[in-house]
């Protein structure tokens, strides 16, 4: 009997050893492709509801109204609106780096507002001033104001460049304070890279740019439609490319068409390792993976706080561009009391105690700011043209492939989640550059292919609209089955275009309930050469989505039916 038991367990052990030895190792693009096609896809039942050419031809695309976010979906700090006749309430839109209540090193203006409100300062009329701060990235705040979607009393973007854009949109502004705090745009640079630059002499902005253009430094960048430092750098790059560092003249719209400007910009874009909507996203990715970038464009104050992170203590920087000193402006719709309240608040914010508080959060009157040798502030027309220039040329000659992998499980019916995604996809489609490729896979009980990756044009936009209209919420959540199908299509495209840029946008409102699990597909994600953008759209497995993002040096984006339009627009604008 003992011998039989021994033989039984020996047989079991040998079988387990055999299975372990036969488990494929995923350590390369080729092995990820092989494992996906031989081990995962055969177990996945995939539906196909591809939109035919005939159906697509008959779609009528309605005029797409330029969408801007609802300001009320952004967090409000300090005082709330009041009906008290004895209170003058003013709401101020503030750039994110100084109005983030979730981070101690990004909340200076919130701290100022809380201290100001506690004092209950009054106007000559005896009415008490109360201030609310709305945390909205500078570029989004400018878009909301330009669209006249709201009428706050004040606006304090990171840089005056956004004010020039508002002037170009015909929005009159009232100067309240030229600067609330000192700050500037910079390149943050890994110490080894900085030391290599220093071997040739003083490390200047020109020396850094020469190294980047010579394919020696990979850069992290952000969206100049949203991020102040990105817009600042874009203008600086184009201005210097046009030769104006020598003559000091302002950049013109016509100069954007010059061969020299186009050549320099094209060379720079080839060195972009990753572009995100804001530099704060880049910063978090860099903290997670310090080797991801050799340099990123960001704000000096944020750099000071980044140096406090382990592994970043020796980080270096090089300044550039116009100051980012957070001007404060009001608007013609303000009452005299609101204007007076803004002026009192500006005086408080620029007082010595509040400036001391700013120093504690990384704001500093640097030598660069003291020297005041800046490029001239461009007109709003030039900045609008520069943003459009970036959007049309940002891909650097590479084709972008993006697979949209969208949850259509039954829970997507709650709170009009799916309807909001459908509308968001329609609006975001306006941001896709012609020639880039977009596909659509949905998942519920099982994945369904709806649009094959193909060069984007008017017919493909119609095809996308038709596919969007067909979506219905139903069934379970085969999350990773859907991701596997989307990755398979992107991997296949890489075989014919290895220099392309490949993205998967994974939107889900719940945890996996059907199909393969995360552990089975983790190795494929890692070696797929596809950057996955998880969007958490409800009660999700946050830990798994964070793990997906970390594998490909990305971030998890938080989506809600109220915010999904602006989120998808930003991601499409940045990547497509």
Spatial separation of the terminal alpha carbons: 69 Å
The CATH topology of the largest domain corresponds to Rossmann fold
Tell me how many strands there are: 18
Sheet bearing the most strands, described? 7 strands, mixed
Uncertain spans, ≥5 residues at pLDDT below 50? 14-22
Proportion of residues in helical segments: 40-55%
CATH architecture of the largest domain: 3-Layer(aba) Sandwich
Describe what you observe in this structure.
The chain is α/β, with parallel strands linked by helices. It folds into 3 domains: 29-58 and 398-575, Rossmann fold, CATH 3.40.50; 71-182 and 325-365, Periplasmic binding protein-like II (D-Maltodextrin-Binding Protein, domain 2), CATH 3.40.190.10; 185-320, Periplasmic binding protein-like II (D-Maltodextrin-Binding Protein, domain 2). Helix content is 43%, strand content 16%. The protein has a 7-stranded mixed β-sheet with strand order 1-15-14-13-16-17-18, with helices on both faces. Helix 21 (518-527) links the parallel strand 16 (501-508) and strand 17 (531-536). Helix 6 crosses helix 17 and helix 9 (228-241) crosses helix 11 (259-269). The longest helix is centred in the first third of the chain and has 21 residues, at 2-22. The protein is globular. The protein starts with a helix and ends with a helix.
């Amino acid at each position: 009997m003992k011998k039989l038991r021994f033989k039984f367990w020996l047989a079991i052990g040998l079988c387990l050893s055999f299975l372990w030895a036969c488990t494929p190792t995923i350590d390369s693009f080729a092995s990820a492709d092989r494992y996906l096609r031989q081990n995962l896809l055969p177990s996945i039942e995939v539906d196909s509801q591809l939109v035919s050419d005939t159906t697509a031809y008959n779609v009528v695309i309605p005029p797409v109204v330029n969408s801007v976010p609802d300001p009320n979906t952004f967090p409000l700090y300090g005082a709330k609106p009041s009906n008290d006749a004895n209170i003058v309430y003013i709401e101020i839109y503030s750039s994110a780096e100084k109005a983030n209540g979730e981070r101690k090193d990004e909340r200076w203006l919130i701290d100022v507002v809380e201290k100001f409100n506690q004092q209950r300062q009054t106007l000559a009329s005896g009415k008490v001033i109360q201030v609310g701060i709305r945390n909205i990235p500078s570029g989004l705040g400018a878009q909301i104001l330009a669209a006249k979607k709201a009428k706050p009393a004040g606006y304090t973007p990171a840089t005056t460049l956004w004010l020039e854009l508002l002037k170009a949109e015909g929005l009159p502004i009232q100067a309240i304070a030229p600067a609330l705090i000192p700050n500037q745009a910079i390149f943050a640079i890994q110490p080894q890279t900085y030391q290599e630059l220093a071997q040739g002499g003083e490390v200047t902005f020109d020396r850094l740019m020469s190294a980047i253009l010579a394919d020696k430094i990979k850069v992290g960048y952000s969206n100049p439609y949203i991020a102040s430092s990105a817009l600042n750098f874009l203008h600086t790059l184009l201005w210097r490319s046009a030769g104006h560092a020598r003559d000091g003249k302002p950049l013109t719209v016509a100069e954007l068409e010059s061969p020299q400007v186009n050549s320099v910009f094209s060379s720079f874009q080839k060195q972009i390792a990753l572009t995100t909507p804001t530099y704060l996203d880049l910063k978090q990715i860099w903290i997670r993976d310090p080797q991801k970038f050799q340099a990123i464009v960001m704000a000096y104050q944020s750099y000071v706080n980044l140096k406090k992170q382990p592994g970043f203590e020796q980080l270096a920087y090089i300044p550039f561009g116009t100051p980012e000193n957070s001007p404060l402006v009001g608007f013609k719709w303000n009452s005299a009391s609101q204007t007076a309240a803004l002026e009192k608040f500006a005086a408080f914010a620029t007082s010595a105690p509040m400036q001391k508080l700013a120093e504690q959060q990384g704001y500093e009157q640097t030598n660069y700011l003291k020297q005041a040798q800046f490029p001239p502030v461009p007109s709003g027309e030039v900045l609008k043209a520069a943003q459009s220039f970036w959007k049309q040329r940002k891909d650097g000659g590479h084709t972008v492939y993006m697979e949209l992998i969208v949850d259509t499980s039954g829970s997507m019916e709650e709170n009009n989640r799916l309807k909001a995604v459908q509308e968001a996809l329609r609006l975001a489609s306006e941001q896709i550059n012609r020639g880039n490729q977009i596909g659509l896979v949905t998942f519920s009980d099982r994945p369904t292919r709806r649009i094959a990756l193909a060069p984007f044009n008017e017919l493909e936009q119609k095809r996308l609209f038709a596919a969007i209209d067909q979506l219905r919420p139903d069934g379970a959540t085969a999350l990773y089955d859907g991701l596997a199908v989307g990755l398979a299509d992107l991997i296949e495209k890489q075989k014919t275009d290895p220099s392309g840029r490949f993205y998967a946008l994974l939107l889900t409102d719940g945890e996996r309930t059907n199909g393969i699990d995360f552990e089975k597909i983790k190795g494929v994600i890692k070696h797929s050469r596809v950057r996955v953008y998880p969007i958490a759209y409800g009660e999700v497995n946050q830990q798994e989505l964070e793990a997906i993002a970390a594998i490909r040096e990305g971030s998890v984006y938080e989506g809600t039916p109220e915010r999904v339009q602006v989120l998808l627009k930003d991601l499409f604008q940045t990547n497509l």
